[in-house]
Amino acid sequence: MNTPVTGFSKLSKSEKIDWIVSNYFTHKQAAKDLLMNYWNADAKLQQLHDEFIENTITNYYLPFGVAPNFLINGKLLTIPMAIEESSVVAAASKAAKFWLDRGGFKTQVIGTTKIGQVHFMFHGDTKKLETFFNHIKPQLLADTQAITANMNKRGGGILDISLRDKTTELSGYYQLHVSFETLNAMGANFINSCLEQFATTLKREALLYEGFSESEKQIQVIMSILSNYVPECLVRAEVSCPVTELTDGTHTNAEAFAKRFVQAVKIAEIEPYRAVTHNKGIMNGIDAVVLATGNDFRAVEAGIHAYAARNGAYSSLTHAEINDGIFRFWIEIPLALGTVGGLTGLHPLVTFALELLQKPSAKELMEIVAVAGLAQNFAALKSLTTTGIQEGHMKMHLMNILNQFQASDTEKNQIIAHFKNHVVTHRAVVEALENLRK
Ligand code: MEV
């Protein structure tokens, strides 16, 4: 039985590793060597990564790939993607190429407003609280001026503060509900700093307010935090073409394919079991670009899934229709992204990814990410409604199976050639490898 450790974060990196391997590993040197194998030879670069989080012991690699040929509003882009799932980048590239020949992707940012809240308890007269709020509103704004000055200069800042009465849902619960425009920054630090200042001002001014009784003066702030639900920070991406052009040569009947495709989307609109998987496929594209560009994919995931359930049932993020012989397929998603601040200027690969994308504004990045999600969904539905997903998926997974069995380069080449015209299954790959090794 191991004993708890105290002061772990104060230990040096080597001391931390020694403690870990001596407590949890049988092959101590092998475990240590493995961790050190993933250290960067460039000490400065390694230090940068060490300092991103606490208790870093090594780096965790993900493949960083690119999907070329994305035509977005007439601009041709190559999209960076950080992801481990074997078929995602290939699927994105295929979808990009397909739509490149059909006018590409059209996008539109619908809104960029973000939300933050000060959650507090007030047990008293709501009317008095409303009067108090209107009285201190200018003070709330004045007290955040040091924080907002730079953002204001660039055209952003606090858009509005309102008082929200939530007492019918929870006794005594009110909010300062605040909307923000954070321009090219994701804005989490900016928003949270403003909110914490609002909380301080709220408590201070309540104590001084003569309209309150002694007990009403004791406003209890529970917490101040931005919301990752951003339904007004919304982007739309779309593709369309005549139904007759919805073929890549493999589907003889474009119209039948279009109809099946639209049915598949309709199923995801009304059936939550399917909607979750449908949207997961969309997130394959979205997360990969969000991660490559140094944005917070957990925030994006949480916000998007909440949006997918906004009407009371979890539903598809994409929609499709056939109207007057035209096939249209679109996505609408909330995305709070930044192209300045955070990791953007810090992580060299993030800087690279943003330069590859031609240094987009946050709005442009919203559009690119939405396109990546739409493209991924198009590729998935195209496979699902025609050949099935496993054909392409297993072809891409073949290399993982070969690596699992430590296939040599020669073996890999021979097996890949063999499976060019054979169905890939785990069993079939193992058998082919065994035959080769006989
Ligand atoms: C796999 O990562 C994603 C899919 O399951 C998405 C879908 O079913 O639409 C293929």
From TrEMBL:
InterPro entries recorded: HMG_CoA_Rdtase, HMG_CoA_Rdtase_bac-typ, HMG_CoA_Rdtase_cat_sf, HMG_CoA_Rdtase_NAD(P)-bd_sf, HMG_CoA_Rdtase_sub-bd_dom_sf
GO function term, MF aspect, one: hydroxymethylglutaryl-CoA reductase (NADH) activity
UniProt entry tagged with the keyword NAD: yes
CDD domains reported for this sequence: HMG-CoA_reductase_classII (cd00644)
Enzyme class: oxidoreductase
UniProt-listed Enzyme Commission number(s): 1.1.1.88
Pathway membership: Metabolic intermediate metabolism; (R)-mevalonate degradation; (S)-3-hydroxy-3-methylglutaryl-CoA from (R)-mevalonate: step 1/1
Known catalytic reactions: (R)-mevalonate + 2 NAD(+) + CoA = (3S)-3-hydroxy-3-methylglutaryl-CoA + 2 NADH + 2 H(+)
Keyword annotations from UniProtKB, A to Z: NAD, Oxidoreductase
PROSITE patterns (alphabetical): HMG_COA_REDUCTASE_4
NCBIfam families: HMG_CoA_R_NAD
PANTHER family registered for this protein in UniProt: 3-HYDROXY-3-METHYLGLUTARYL-COENZYME A REDUCTASE
UniProt record similarity statement: Belongs to the HMG-CoA reductase family.
Protein name, entry field: 3-hydroxy-3-methylglutaryl coenzyme A reductase
Organism: Bizionia sediminis
